[in-house]
Amino acid sequence: MITISLCMIVKNEEDTIARCLDSVKDLVDEIIIVDTGSTDKTKEIVSQYTDHILDFQWIDDFAAARNFAFKNAKMDYIFWLDADDVLMEDDCKKFLKLKETLDTTIDSVTMHYNLTIDDKGKVITSLRRNRLVKRKNNFQWYGPVHEYLEVSGNILHSEVAVTHCSVHQDSDRNLLIYENRLKQGEQFSPRDLFYFANELLEHDKLEDAIKYYKQFLSTNNGWVEDYISACGRLAECYYAIGDHENELHFILKSFEYDSPRADFCCRLGYRFLHNNHPYQALFWYKLATQLEKPTDNLGMINHACWTWLPHLQLCVCYSQIGKHALAYEHNEIAREYLPDHPSILHNKHYLENILE
């Protein structure tokens, strides 16, 4: 059985760090915590779990801090988390099984990263990340902010999930790092352009976000999943400012990078339904239900668009054109995913009265 080092970088995480470490303390063989300047009780809490607490002077560089943490690992593999991440009980069992059975020829293991979940525990959005890597390969982190771990070799896509459970509102930290780098005249990489645009969008700076998303798309040497995501976010920006011509342009542009994704089909369906064109909307919502949800794609997945949402919208479309039996059928499919959703229950009672 392999041994595992947990490596984390933290700063002022007293509200979440115990929850995180409680969830994984029995899964790993050592815990290494790199503190980048906590002024709260983070170190005091962490000391209850490990003696490997190291200080790292913060230099506005997440990759540097993570690489420092990785250099201090001693076990066969390195597992990394953020302080507001947890492993749920079922995922702990999957993790232990993975640890017991992992073939040592594996260089990196990807795991699901559940970014948002609803109050019933259903995953809303997720992606995959390389979470468990062979220490002797000396894989490195890159990027001062929104850093990424560059891996190669034999990669296993596991079914273990890490769940993000943030209790803090996003700060201006990342945006300020990017803005300071710009002031210093730094030439941004395609990845930096994309993530800078994301930060601008999250801070409601829509015009600036549009500018940098477009710069990113013009580079032609970024990650295809980021290009697709940028198209979606540009469509979101243009919808917000009422420019529906450009909204449509960037929805359709996403098809240049790969076959249609369910979330873009739903965007088109909504556009046509909103403009009182239910037959055109039907086409796109139907297509969304026929697509196969990716299982090993590292990009972002909006699970609603691949499951219940297009069926709920097909219910609306069919109801508008008087095909109530089909409307009821799709509402029932949506109800299999979300049995307590108020809109679905309303549709059920409404359509049952009509059909009776």
From TrEMBL:
InterPro entries tied to this protein: Glyco_trans_2-like (IPR001173), Nucleotide-diphossugar_trans (IPR029044), TPR-like_helical_dom_sf (IPR011990)
Pfam families: Glycos_transf_2
Signal peptide segment: none
Superkingdom classification of source: Bacteria
Domain Glycosyltransferase 2-like per the UniProt entry, residue ranges: 5-145
Protein name stated in the entry: Beta 1,4 glucosyltransferase
Species the sequence originates in: Halobacillus andaensis
